[in-house]
Amino acid sequence: MTDLSCRHDFVLFFDVKNGNPNGDPDAGNLPRLDPETGHGLVSDVSLKRKIRNYVEIAHAGEAGKAIYVQEGAILNEQHRKAYEAVRPEEKTDGLKLNPKSDDEANQLRRWMCANFFDVRTFGAVMSTGVNCGQVRGPVQMTFAQSIEPIVPQEISITRMAATTAKEKEQRREGETEEGGARTDNRTMGRKHIVPYGLYRAHGFVSAKLAEQTGFSDTDLDLLIEALGAMFEHDRSAARGEMAVRKLIVFRHDTALGRAPAHQLFDRVAVLRSIDGEGRAINRRLDNYPPARAISDYVVTIDREEWPEGVEIIEAV
């Protein structure tokens, strides 16, 4: 693996149809949104989770591609593996552990970075009980925000099956005849969906921080692979149809970069496709029909007077 020598920035577009891309537990699992603008939100934590899941599925058992933050994982036990590697002669079971020196602390961090893809990619706080220190990751992502305001819908659902024999008996007792039609005492529920939404997120890859964690060109290729395919292995009834629609990567030819990230992001615009033409979106002035497919949008890149030393890679 070769060290990452160039800075990268990227813009990710994905959409959802009749699903909940990221429920808010503080709001009854409603789709997250900005209350002032009505734009939908998907947290960076949610996106990183899907990247981790893809790497775990696609590269399970491969050296250096283990996942540190897994569902149900005991993080201190992950840290203990580093101590077992650095202190093979000592018993570490059941003990609170701290590095004995700065050199040992560096060895522990290097071991965690070398073995766990998500530690050397996103970083981690590993100072809980069994102390492996902290790692600042070279890859960071923003919240994703929908291009236009979303209108979450609440759908009523019913369950026909009973959980217990007692519940089945209660349902039978609750059955009545009204106007010739039988009504059942069934369990009711709610499901929240976004009819359609196109979301945009930004990402940053620091070559300088990559030097500290060992994040390599090979890891970058895997990250791009995971970004493009992360929804293909994350299907569920709650999420509806989700798909990555576009991934634009800006590759600088230096570690520090050739242009500020925000200037590159500003060159990527999303227009509404109306009668085959791309038109700017202005919610106060336009009267466009609701978007219901990716074909209702046009993504453009302003390439005029493009900064020298920055390559555009349309990965998806």
TrEMBL record:
GO terms for biological process: maintenance of CRISPR repeat elements. Residues 165-185 have a biased composition (Basic and acidic residues). Pfam families: Cas_Cas7. Transmembrane segments: none annotated. InterPro entries: Cas7_Csh2/Csh2, CRISPR-assoc_prot_Cas7/Csd2. CDD domains: Cas7_I-C. It comes from the Bacteria. Residues 164-185 are annotated as: Disordered. This is Type I-C CRISPR-associated protein Cas7/Csd2. The lineage of its organism: Bacteria, Pseudomonadati, Pseudomonadota, Alphaproteobacteria, Hyphomicrobiales. The gene is cas7c.
